[in-house]
Backbone:
């Protein structure tokens, strides 16, 4: 009897395909000695090893970098097409010219090949694939499982124990829902730290928007709070009719027991819920959950706009800007976007019943099967739609075009600012700019920032912070000297900017001149231009003075000047980044025990000191004689602890 392959076996196979050390069958052609120095590839020998089976394949260049990931219903036929003579596509010819070797993984079906392809694209981010860059996690509403559960906005890893409702398409939908819930269900939304330390009800309780579980409630109060928690769960699960029924029963129960005040509260909740349902209903014949997707392509850029429609109302919208390679077709753009978007783990709880798209996609049936397999339910793709769906599709396409136009305009604005800056400073071809700033509180825990801008704007992946040590507290000149020394320690082995901005006046500028002159004295790289951005009178924006390095030539620009707008953007970003780093370092220092860092005092001895003496304040007050009485503390160590604590204090 032929053994059937279960879905779990298939998924196990796919997960293993992502592991380079797995036992999944892979075929590859080793590079010859010749291929070490060239991209020539013996495709004829390779194609003889490829089976006529569905699967996914990876193409590598001579540096062992994955440059393309694809999938096929028939691997042999698909891979053979890349090496046909007279291929018209410029992209395909460029791709083939860089192939050093190919690896492939056989799967049970084309659907599984698509899922595997999507996972591999996420893993390797190949340069010749269309990439969807959307790293934001979706927001949720969190109902904690504490003694008195609270309702919170949550984004990120689900480390907190509780019930997560969502995900929602954007943060505004979550915040609006929380405001609505606070009006109807008096459950706390305050932070746990506030809840744990209150001694009397807060303003929300006085306004009737919280039952004040932070203070003793009594047995009836506890029961009422638990009932409200159950009701809010019904609301968040969409069980509105059951919620209304439960509230009606509860109101009648209070009324029979002559608890008219509680019955009135239930009545008010019922009225509020019915008003909400009326506000959420729209004149539409769409009752199912649908996503409507429109796209626009212009000047080598692409935008895909998604409308999230749930129960006849637009719950949220979002624009995405997939990276579009040259010669990329519309079919490839839509297929890449749809597969990466809907086969993402982030969307596992957000699958609609229908997905309306504005262009036909060749392999839409394969994608639909893959989504159905991942989601565990049927999801339909619709193309030629009418009536309400057609109106929504027109709206999605209009939004995509408007978003793309805005993005292109933003890019042109950035270009205008760069051009203006180059003209004023008489510099050509600026590609990288860096700005340095110092932040501290009365000299404590000084942090320096280095932010990087290119011709498109901020390059946040290259931002850096430096913890400044070993200087006189509050000496900004010494701090600037140290950060620049560390940044330009080895100019020949790091990316060198064309322009360096210093947030400060002539004193900071002289530090930069001294450091960079010494660093680039024997370097092969050329010395970057240096500009100090000195604050104006009263630190008012628009009155800044630009001081050129070495010549000390000064510029006073008007706030309407695109060059000054760019400089202020860079300066403000470096200031923000430095302050954020300083605050984080200061917060960490204040959370750290004063006993940490004392040599010879580990975790066990810290615990012994705190337990034996009764807390941190008592340890700080204790003399050497009291410290010696703690088990494990010698007289010499007690003296060391005393000296360290009082030096810190």
Residues:
């Amino acid at each position: 009897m032929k053994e059937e392959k279960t879905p779990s076996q298939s998924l196990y196979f796919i997960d293993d395909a992502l592991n380079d050390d797995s036992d999944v069958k892979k075929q590859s052609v080793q590079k010859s000695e010749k291929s070490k120095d060239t991209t020539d590839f013996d495709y004829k020998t390779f194609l003889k090893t490829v089976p006529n089976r569905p699967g996914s394949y990876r193409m590598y260049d001579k540096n062992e970098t994955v440059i393309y990931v694809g999938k096929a219903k028939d691997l042999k036929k698909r891979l053979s097409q890349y090496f046909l003579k007279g291929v018209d596509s410029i992209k395909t010819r460029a791709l083939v010219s860089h192939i050093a070797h190919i690896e492939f993984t056989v799967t049970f079906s084309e659907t599984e090949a698509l899922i595997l392809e999507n996972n591999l694209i996420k893993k390797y981010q190949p340069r010749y694939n269309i990439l969807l860059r959307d790293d934001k996690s979706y927001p949720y509403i969190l109902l904690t499982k504490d003694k008195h559960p609270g309702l919170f906005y949550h984004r990120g890893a689900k480390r907190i124990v509780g019930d997560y409702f969502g995900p929602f398409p954007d943060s505004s939908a979550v915040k609006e829902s929380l405001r609505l819930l606070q009006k109807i269900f008096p459950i706390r939304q305050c932070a746990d730290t506030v809840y744990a330390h209150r001694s009397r009800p807060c303003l929300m309780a006085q306004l009737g928007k919280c039952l004040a579980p932070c203070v003793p409630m009594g047995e009836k109060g506890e029961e009422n709070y638990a009932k409200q928690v159950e009701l809010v769960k019904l609301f968040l699960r969409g069980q509105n009719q059951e919620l209304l029924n439960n509230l009606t029963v509860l109101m009648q129960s209070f009324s029979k027991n002559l608890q008219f005040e509680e019955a009135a509260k239930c009545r008010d909740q019922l009225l509020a819920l019915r008003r909400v349902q009326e506000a959420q209903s729209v004149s539409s014949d769409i009752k199912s959950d649908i996503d409507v997707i429109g796209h626009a392509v212009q000047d080598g850029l692409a935008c895909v706009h998604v409308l999230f429609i749930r129960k006849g109302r637009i719950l949220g919208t979002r624009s995405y800007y997939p990276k579009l390679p040259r010669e990329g077709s519309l079919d490839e753009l839509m297929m890449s976007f749809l597969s990466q978007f809907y086969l993402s783990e982030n969307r596992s709880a957000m699958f609609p019943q229908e997905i309306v798209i504005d262009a036909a996609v060749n392999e839409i049936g394969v994608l639909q099967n893959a989504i159905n397999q991942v989601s565990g339910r049927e999801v339909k793709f619709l193309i030629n739609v009418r009536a309400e769906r057609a109106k929504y599709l027109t709206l999605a396409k209009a939004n995509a075009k408007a978003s793309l136009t805005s993005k292109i305009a933003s890019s042109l604005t950035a270009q205008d600012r760069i051009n203006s800056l180059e003209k004023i400073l008489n510099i050509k071809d600026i590609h990288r700019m860096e700005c340095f700033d110092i932040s501290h509180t009365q000299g404590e825990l000084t942090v320096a920032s280095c932010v990087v801008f290119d011709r498109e704007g901020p390059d946040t992946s290259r931002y850096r912070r430096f913890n400044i040590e070993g200087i006189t507290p509050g000496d900004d000149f010494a701090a600037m000297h140290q950060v620049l020394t560390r940044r330009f320690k080895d100019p020949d082995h790091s990316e060198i900017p064309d322009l360096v901005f210093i947030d400060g006046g002539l004193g900071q500028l002289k530090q930069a001149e001294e450091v960079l002159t010494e660093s680039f004295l024997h370097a092969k790289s050329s010395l970057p231009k240096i500009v100090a951005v000195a604050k104006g009178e009263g630190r008012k924006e628009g009155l800044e003075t630009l001081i050129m390095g070495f010549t000390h030539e000064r510029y006073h620009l008007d706030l309407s000047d695109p060059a000054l707008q760019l400089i202020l953007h860079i300066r403000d970003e470096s200031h923000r980044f430095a302050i954020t780093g300083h605050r984080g370092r200061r917060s960490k220092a204040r959370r750290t025990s004063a006993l940490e860092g004392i040599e010879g005092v580990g975790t066990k001895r810290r615990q012994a000191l705190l337990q034996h003496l009764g807390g941190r304040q008592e340890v700080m007050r204790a003399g050497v004689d009291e410290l010696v009485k703690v088990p494990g503390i010698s007289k010499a160590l007690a003296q060391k602890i005393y000296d360290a604590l009082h030096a810190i204090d």
The chain is about 45% helix and 15% strand. The chain has a mean pLDDT of 80. The longest helix spans residues 387-425. Residues 432 and 497 are 5 Å apart (CA to CA).
